[in-house]
């Protein structure tokens, strides 16, 4: 089994998500601002859920699916 290098601890990540949530709350808490969080499906759902929980203002969330390949390209 190969070793996995951890560059950011779970506590550091939680702290940064909390900081980002506070920054976003500060910038978008005005009634004249609309906050829309857009996330890539299958890649950031858990992160976006954690971020949304740390934001203390109304926001909408949407997801988009992306593909690395165009419609006419196949991969083997």
Brief overview, please?
This protein is of the alpha+beta class. The protein is built from two helices and two strands.
Characterize the structure shown.
By secondary structure, this protein is α+β, with helices and mostly antiparallel strands. It is about 35% helix and about 15% strand. The protein is built from two helices and two strands, in the order H-E-H-E. Strands 1-2 form a two-stranded parallel ribbon. Helix 2 (about 45-55) links the parallel strand 1 (about 35-40) and strand 2 (about 60-65). Helix 1 (about 10-30) packs across helix 2 (about 45-55). The chain is flat, with a radius of gyration of 17 Å. The model has no long low-confidence stretch (mean pLDDT about 85).
List the helices and strands and how they pair.
Elements (H helix, E strand, L loop, with lengths): L9 H19 L7 E5 L4 H9 L6 E5 L12
Parallel strand pairs: 1-2
Helix pairs in contact: 1-2
Q: How helical, in percent, are the residues? A: 25-40%
Largest sheet: 2 strands, parallel
Beta strand count? 2
Please state the overall shape, judged from the principal axes of the Cα atoms.
flat
The string of secondary-structure elements, in order, is HEHE
Percent of residues in β-strands: 5-15%
Features:
about 80 residues, about 35% helix, 2 strands, two-stranded parallel sheet, alpha+beta
């Amino acid at each position: 089994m190969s070793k996995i290098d951890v560059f950011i601890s779970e506590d550091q990540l939680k702290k940064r998500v909390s900081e980002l949530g506070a920054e976003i709350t500060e910038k978008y808490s005005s009634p004249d601002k609309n906050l829309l969080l857009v996330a890539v499906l299958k890649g950031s759902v858990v992160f976006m859920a954690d971020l949304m929980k740390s934001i203390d203002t109304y926001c909408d969330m949407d997801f988009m699916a992306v593909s690395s390949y165009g419609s006419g390209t196949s991969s083997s």
